[in-house]
Amino acid sequence: MAVHDGPRAVHVVSLGGACEPAVELACRAVGRNLDLFCSALSPGSPPRFALDPVRDQHDALEILRWLDHELGGPGEMVLAIVEVDLFIPVLTFVYGEARLGGRSAVVSTFRLAEGGDGEPCDQDLFLSRVEKEAVHEVGHMLGLTHCVDRNCAMYPSNTLVQTDSKGPRLCPGCHARLVARSGGV
After folding, report:
1. Inside any domain, residue 112
2. Is 115 within 8 Å of 122 (Cβ atoms)?
3. Confidence check: pLDDT of 97 > 90
4. Fewest beta carbons less than 10 Å away: which of 101, 103, 118, 176?
5. Residue 137 annotated in active site
6. What does each C-alpha distance from 106 to 6, 80, 117 come to in angstroms?
7. Is residue 3 part of a domain?
8. Which residue range is the domain that position 53 belongs to?
9. pLDDT value at position 1?
10. Which residues contact 152 (CB under 8 A, 6 or more apart)?
């Protein structure tokens, strides 16, 4: 795998067969909206190690710990795209999770693919959701917190309605904070 030596690199990896268009779109969106070098890594195995059998969901924090130790190198960030349902101990589910200022993040396509009446949503809507959540979680790795601007990618998503209503880009305030943190974007 080719690795970018700069401190502003992110690698996107599918763990367990997340669809290739979602991985490619996440990589393009993160690169374009956050001005990062982005590359896709070879797909990995599903994160079975993080399964909580009582909840029948995967612990997002366990996946982050694994990513921190297994993928990427100094100055690199890793975003995993998974198809499994994620949770953190204090929430019923999450669409994604990242360490603020850390080097790992995960986005789940499990609930992002939901449409009405138990049917899957159309592919364009699904990919739009993945794009927004990827930018959101990588934004957290870059030190951005949640935003009150409902159009900003850093607006929190607790429902699909919130995800669908926000955009994939940073608002001017979040963009300015990112520029200030990085010394220029």
Report:
1. yes
2. yes
3. yes
4. 118
5. yes
6. 22, 5, 27
7. no
8. 9-182
9. 31
10. 166, 167, 169, 170, 171, 173, 174
**pLDDT at res. 183:** 66
Beta-carbon contacts of residue 96 (< 8 Å; ≥ 6 apart): 60, 86, 105, 106, 107, 108, 133, 134, 136, 137
Count structural domains, the chain: 1
Question: Looking at 83, 97, 133, 137, which residue is catalytic?
Answer: 137
Q: Count the residues in the chain.
A: 185
Share of the chain above pLDDT 70, in %: 94
Model confidence, pTM: 0.90
How far is 105 from 10, CA to CA, in rounded Å?
A: 10
Domain presence at residue 4:
no
pLDDT digits (tens, 9 = 90+) for 58-68: 999 999 999 99
Distance, first Cα to last Cα, the chain: 26
CATH number of the domain where residue 76 is located: 3.40.390.10
* 98 within some domain: yes
CA angle 133, 78, 20 (to 5 degrees): 65
